[in-house]
Design a protein that fits this description.
- By secondary structure, this protein is of the alpha+beta class.
- Helix content is 26%, strand content 34%.
- The chain is built from four helices and six strands.
- It has helices at residues 2-19, 41-47, 54-64, 117-124; strands spanning 81-88, 91-98, 103-111, 131-142, 145-157, 160-167.
- Strands 1-2-3-4-5-6 form a six-stranded antiparallel sheet.
- Strand 5 and strand 6 (160-167) form a beta hairpin.
- The longest helix has 18 residues, at 2-19.
- The radius of gyration is 28 Å and the shape is extended.
Length: 170
C-alpha cells in the first residue's frame, strides 16, 4: 500500500513539472493600461468634497454610475433628458440625464443627517450648551457647475432658537 501511495504522489508531482514547461512559439503579450472613468466624473468632483456627509456620498455615487439605458422609457431618439430620483431614508437626489448618460442637473436635499466634522465644529464654535434641533443639506448642480452647496442648522437652548446657514459654493 505504501508503494502505491508513493507511486501516486510521484505521478502527481511529475504532472506538475510538465505543466510548468515553457512551450515554444507562445509569446507573452503586454497590454496597454486603460483608465476607465464614469461618465459623470465632473459631477462627482464638483459635489463631493470633505464637507459632504457619508449618506449623501453613497447616493451621489449611485447617481453618477446610473445606467440610463436601463430605463423602460429610454429611447435615444425621442427623449432628450431623463429624470431619475434616488432616495435615502432622510433625503433624495433628483438627477436629469442626457441620452448618453451625462448628468445635466442634480438637486440634492437631505434632512437631519450626521454633519461632517468640519461643519459640526463651525456650528458649535461659540455655541456651547446649544443643541442641534434639525439640519438640512442642499446641493444644486447644473451644467457642469456647482451652483449651491449649503447647510442650514437650527440650534436650541431652552426657549431660544438660532438658525445658521453655511455656504460651501465654489
Amino acid at each position: 500500500m505504501k508503494q502505491f501511495v508513493t507511486l501516486l504522489i510521484f505521478l502527481g508531482l511529475t504532472c506538475f513539472v510538465f505543466a510548468q514547461e515553457e512551450h515554444d512559439g507562445i509569446t507573452a503579450v503586454t497590454l496597454d493600461a486603460i483608465t476607465v472613468s464614469p461618465v459623470n466624473v465632473d459631477y462627482l468632483q464638483k459635489v463631493n468634497d470633505g464637507n459632504t456627509p457619508e449618506v449623501v456620498q453613497e447616493l451621489q455615487y449611485k447617481a453618477a454610475n446610473f445606467d440610463v439605458t436601463s430605463l423602460n422609457e429610454y429611447d435615444k431618439k425621442d427623449i432628450h433628458t431623463f429624470e431619475v430620483v434616488f432616495k435615502a431614508s432622510n433625503g433624495d437626489i433628483i438627477a436629469s440625464y442626457t441620452s448618453d448618460g451625462s448628468i445635466v442637473t442634480a438637486f440634492e436635499n437631505f434632512e437631519n443627517i450626521v454633519l461632517p466634522m468640519t461643519v459640526r465644529k463651525m456650528v458649535f464654535d461659540g455655541n456651547e450648551g446649544w443643541k442641534m434641533e434639525k439640519n438640512r443639506y442642499i446641493c444644486v448642480f447644473s451644467e457642469d457647475n456647482l451652483t449651491k452647496k449649503q447647510y442650514k442648522v437650527t440650534l436650541t437652548d431652552g426657549n431660544q432658537k438660532k438658525k445658521m446657514t453655511f455656504d460651501f459654493d465654489e
